[in-house]
Amino acid sequence: MDRLHHVSDVDGIRVFEPRAPLRHPDAPARVWLIDREHLPLYLLPRECPRVAVFPVSGTSEADRAGFGRDCALRMMILIDRTWEEAWRTGSLVRYDFKLGPPALATGDHGVWVSESSMSPIGEVRLDDLPAEARRAGVEVRVVDDLVAEADRLWPESNEAPPISLHVSMMRMSNLPGWTRGKGRPTGT
To answer: What is the DSSP letter of 16?
Structure first.
């Protein structure tokens, strides 16, 4: 891995300035970056709620086998049907950055942060998000009720998911019927 990335729906950004996440204005101001392995988590419209599931080093053999039966690719991302058209017709810009300082790894599934301004070394327009997901080895599944799927994968009563696969939920508070509130910014 020799690059980090930031995905945006805005093109032509020359300098990324640290800022707090919009949903968490009290969080530290940072530039947020992602490594190549976890980049598919962001190959969706910015505000699109999503649940990603994938094996990690601590995944049990039983859970790994079950995941393999459900998904032939390395990662599965679930999105609500109300976001399908935006995903299929949307476009994004991937900004590329040098790996290393001032960006530091958070230890949280590919997330890196910088408290200093950063300038990208490249910019690539992504006009076919479904094709980008396939190239990255990701299956995006459109479901009728993402809240129900999230509850099945990580019931609200559990502090951890009942499976040893990694379950990541993003932008879920954008869904009608989501009652758990906002999550925390990754890497904080």
So the answer is: B
Q: The tokens of 181 are what?
A: 């509130």
Residue whose tokens read 């679930």? 78
CB 85 within 8 A of CB 1: no
| Distance set, CA 112 to CA 6, 100, 119, 128, 174 (Å) | 10, 9, 15, 26, 24
- Tokens representing 185 are 């910014």
Distance of alpha carbon 181 from alpha carbon 16, whole angstroms: 28
27 φ, ψ to 5°? Answer: -75, 160
pTM of the model: 0.91
Distance of alpha carbon 19 from the chain centroid: 18
Query: pLDDT, tens digit, for every residue of 49-82?
Result: 999 999 999 999 999 999 999 888 999 999 999 9
3-state secondary structure of 87: helix
CA 132 to CA 121: how far, in whole Å?
Answer: 20
pLDDT digits (tens, 9 = 90+) for 108-155: 889 999 999 999 999 999 999 999 999 999 999 999 999 999 999 988
Instruction: Give Cβ neighbours of residue 75 (< 8 Å, ≥ 6 apart).
Output: 40, 52, 53, 54, 136, 137, 138, 139
Q: Is residue 54 within a helix (H) or strand (E), and if so which, with residue range? A: strand 50-54
